[in-house]
């Protein structure tokens, strides 16, 4: 990959803590995380004190901080479970945010080298994306690659990248039915590519290993889509999938890029797919409505900021999806609340 | 009739096979499994593994029953099981005369559901004699294996994709890729010689070759011993097509599309004569043809991007959030392979980076999403001729033409637009071949020069093209495209008027050589 010099002052690493003992997680990432400022947010439902090893530069936010900022009204957005990281996004002032689930450790590439996921995400975010035409050699800006014959020259400068979605070795981000069906399936394939997800192509963006340009798309990464029986396993949520589609619509509208591929992280075994399936499978069903909705969503041309994009999406959700299921109505309300909160925190 | 298998503790853990990979089109399985219309689903059971209830969704718009099972884990819940049918009526009894909507049967139903959702087969909750469960004997045609599955009737509001599990010992799980040796032709354009075939012999020898000899027809092209082939030079092309031969390029590898036209096979693989066998990162030689066949025989997924790339590949699957209704995919029309060593750059890039080599082996196949254009390269390409053949016209290039090296790209843009319209898929990625010859960048620049400017008009044209709903065949789509090329690109350069005419001639020639029976 090309050498990018990283300005460490531009980066925040946000960690949503869903377990109390972060020691092994942070030790595994020490060589990478110790170079950056961290924002650690404790899941407000997680009782107790977090164990964080020494030698890191971090700010810690807990339930009381969240309540202090967000307020305790019944309208307030819930930051529990995986959504706690969004509070970290809210508190950050940096240009780039990288978020990795606390059950993921660094991966090794096919040559056995340690993968610095943070560096790769920053590389993805700071090099152009190419959403308007597919390059068959994948990322043309990486070392050893370029645009292929037939790629229009006028499209070769690319656009800014708003979101970088990484992948996972070992326990891939499969849904509960799939993992239950194939209990031994592990992702062992290291695909050495980053590619731009084309314009108006929707994809399921997993929140397990992502990074984004907060200045460009910050408000679009939002805690909105909660399932009734949502829990502390990714199998029991689809909030990140919803958020990711919002971000993709926003990026498509604002002519920004979304990349997918490297870096990989190694996702540890956790949970039981069948138990999750028994508990929560409504998410699987709801995707049937969510995906066509986002695929056909077009924002009005006058909308020019991420905040306004989000507000408009929320309005259309309210109009088109909310009648079918209260989850959608709630999601739309949360989105509007979030934009208000985002703006309020920015002006303080 | 239940075929019981001897299950012992030494039985290796069975693998789950998903239906779309292994169910043959002419299934000898009971009808309920064979289409997504059915309300039946089959339950996977093994002696050592949990089995689970899977709830994919119907793409079939004739399904109207909207009841759903909302709670499979608790004994209560307000879901209903009815005897679903294709026209959506519910109520009435199932094959066993049970009316599952009846409250008195709710307990039975919930127990059945519970049994399905948890526990190994020897769990006391699971009762293979339960009236809700019907054992079915099923034969997987591709392996001849007999399998036992249990089926339960549930409403067709949530349609189930059935999943089969072997409970017998099985030697190799991965079915080997069929050779398709009587269904595939290899088309090779050449102006020099075919020495490169020697390296490909182990992989190509079973297949019939169609050699299209470009340039001087009096030159004798040597085909290595042992290959079954037909060879066409310019004289042959003129003789076979008569005046229509004008649509076939001369002094350009675009002439290869003549080979597609005369082929009688279902699949085409085309490769350049400077492309050799590549090695994967483990050092193993890559059978590019086998990978193309794998790509073409498995579905594509153009409607939603799978972040783990081709979900039908061994070791991969659809990720969380991927709608189940889209997991059947669509037929794959084109398999676009890549190249190690000399990359397929245009002339300006070649001039700036003469030493750059592609050394990155990206172990992925992916579907190019609907609505996205790409630059297709004809060096290492497979396609289903029956699905998309007439769209693979490589245009007017070479001798007497103002442009060259845009043949495959032109075909690719037309093909992509038509595939998007007809709901077909195009894959790109593996396999890699080793591209050995770098063509002269100055010669290339002269050929491409006009294209570099024209492209700026071509791309918006293809991006905004729409085909009428009643264009349902490749030929009608292509003729419609030709009309629009003339109307919208004719003003860019008169070349496009000629090209549009040639596109029509191509279809006429195609239909003449390939009359529909």
UniProtKB/TrEMBL annotation, chain A:
Its main location: Golgi. One of its GO terms (molecular function) is UDP-arabinopyranose mutase activity. InterPro entries: RGP_fam (IPR037595). Keywords: Cell wall biogenesis/degradation, Golgi apparatus. GO terms for cellular component: cytosol; Golgi apparatus; plasmodesma. One of its GO terms (biological process) is cell wall organization. It is found in: Golgi apparatus. It holds the Pfam family RGP. Belongs to the RGP family. PANTHER family: UDP-ARABINOPYRANOSE MUTASE 5-RELATED (PTHR31682:SF4), UDP-ARABINOSE MUTASE (PTHR31682). This is UDP-arabinopyranose mutase 5. It comes from Fraxinus pennsylvanica.
From TrEMBL, chain B:
It is found in: Golgi apparatus. One of its GO terms (molecular function) is UDP-arabinopyranose mutase activity. InterPro entries: RGP_fam (IPR037595). The keyword Cell wall biogenesis/degradation applies. GO terms for cellular component: cytosol; Golgi apparatus. Residues 71-106 are annotated as: Disordered. Keywords: Cell wall biogenesis/degradation, Golgi apparatus. One of its GO terms (biological process) is UDP-L-arabinose metabolic process. Belongs to the RGP family. This is UDP-arabinopyranose mutase. It comes from Fraxinus pennsylvanica.
